[in-house]
Amino acid sequence: PAEDAARWARLPGGGEVVDLGFQQDPEWSRIELAFSKPTPHRVVEAGPDRIVVDLPSTALPKRFTRALDTSAFPGAVKLVAAYPRGRDTRLVVDLRKPAPFRIERDEAHLNLLVAGGSAEPPAVGVAAVKAEKDRVVLVEGEGPAAEAQAGEAEGPVYTGRRLSMDFVDADIRNVLRLIGEVSGLNVVAGDDVQGKVTVRLVDVPWDQALDVILKTRGLDKVREGNVLRIAPAERLAQEKARKLEQEKAEKEQAPLVTDIVPVNYASAQELSDKVKAVLSDRGAVSVDERTNALILKDVAERLEQARALVRRLDTQTPQVLIEARIVEVSSTFAKDLGIQWGGRFEASTRTGAATDWAFPHSIGVSGDTGVGNFAVNFPSAGGAAGPGGALALTLGHVNDVLSLDLRLSAIETAGKGRVISSPRVTTLDNKTAEISQGVEIPFTTATEEKIETQAIEYKLRLNVTPHVTADRSIIMKIDLSKEDPSTTFVAVDSQTPGKETRAATTEVLVKDGETTVIGGIITNRQSNTQSGIPWLSKLPFVGWLFKSKNNRVDKTELIIFITPKIVNQPVVEAAARSL
Description:
Strands 20, 21, 22, 23, 24, 25, 30 and 31 form an eight-stranded antiparallel β-sheet that branches. The chain folds into five domains: 1-115, Immunoglobulin-like, CATH 2.60.40; 162-235, Phage tail protein beta-alpha-beta fold, CATH 3.55.50; 257-313, Ribosomal Protein S8, Chain: A, domain 1 (2-Layer Sandwich); 338-410, no CATH class; 417-566, no CATH class. It is α+β, with helices and mostly antiparallel strands. It has eight helices and 31 strands. Helix 3 packs antiparallel against helix 4 (206-216). The protein is 16% helix and 50% strand. It has helices spanning 2-9, 144-150, 172-183, 206-216, 233-253, 268-276, 300-313, 569-578; strands at residues 17-24, 28-35, 42-46, 50-55, 66-69, 77-85, 88-95, 101-106, 109-115, 126-128, 137-139, 162-171, 186-189, 196-205, 219-224, 227-232, 257-262, 284-288, 293-298, 319-347, 363-366, 376-378, 389-396, 402-421, 424-428, 433-446, 451-468, 473-490, 497-511, 516-532, 547-566.
């Protein structure tokens, strides 16, 4: 009665199923359920071959979530399935033929009785499932099947709700209907889908179970929206082949469309070969170099694919700012010691010391032609007027007959210089940036016909080729060279100075904004020079009166600090995400 149905529908629910069983009586097929709390029910379908009962706000333990094949019993029921639907539980009973039914219940029990029994004793009296784990079960969440599936590198990926089923000689149509209930999809099978299957699957996704069952019977499926169509695999393959041939014929008959695709950052000529790969046999591509555009001709579908490819490839090239600090540290030490001495002796009437002879009546001897012109002249590099120091001494005889000049000069210098240059240049990804600075030194060459003045250039040159990686690091190819005039190697015929070159080539990986250092390019020059009068300069002690000595040490080190920075950072990040 309607009053009883309304009464049971008003029960609070909130409990769970504690027992589920099937029993075949001589007159009835009986499905029995027991609940932990008063539980409502609602009959949602009562068709000629199916009965569906919902239990609102009622949980179904995993041990009862199952499908039970009862086709071995002589009654009207051939399949019983129970599974959760959100917070509710649904009970589905498939019938062998239309049969009347009724529901008997109290607050904690529900018995569904379907008419159509047999006086013969049933093959199995009771099919209870209180503690059986290897019956048909629907499982929510992750489990062993998902873990095994995730470990497979090949094959399809199954994502359906997992279930377990155990059937013996079950009608495949009934099994497909059960899978349709679990998946929530509509299942359509033709007359050529028939036969029986024996299945025991434990904890597998329903879509995998469906594929396995279909393969055992030589069947396949096609999904159209929320409908699964089941048919023999050979028939579906023929349909697919006919469809592909039809689509190919339609494309061959489709009109060709011409489109002009502008290219902003890349070279249209370089993109043309890549775009040609996605066009059909009827398609063509040409390049307008003046506007840097691609002219495409093909069917509309292929044109859209070509445009999408151009959009992906025609991205803004990363730009990199190269900041360099070029430091040259030099130290110089020089030490010079020299001597200049000479004298004058004059015996004449002017000095009052003439000789007693008629000839020579007067005698004069000096270092050169007089005082200040030295007999031994080895000054220091600074000389008397240089930056060094000098000591002069004059010794003379009364009446100025004899005089002696002596000048000691010495210079000692030490210097340390630092030349800093901070050039900055911006370049594109994979394009070389060159930083150079230098000087031109003129020199003169003389021939029989004319005298020419030429110049030799001496440069400090730094070449950097950056490449921006996907994680916004920067690979730099660095080529460094420094040229200096050579004081050692000079062309004899033209006095043309030579070149001394120091170079370094390397490749480094740094993060955006980090600094790399190139150092250790060191030049060390030492010179010791000694000048003097032969034999006399080698005398012990007094030999210093006849010689001068020069010691010089020059040391130079070149250090380069290079800091790359990505200028168009947002564009680079967007391009990396699109890959």
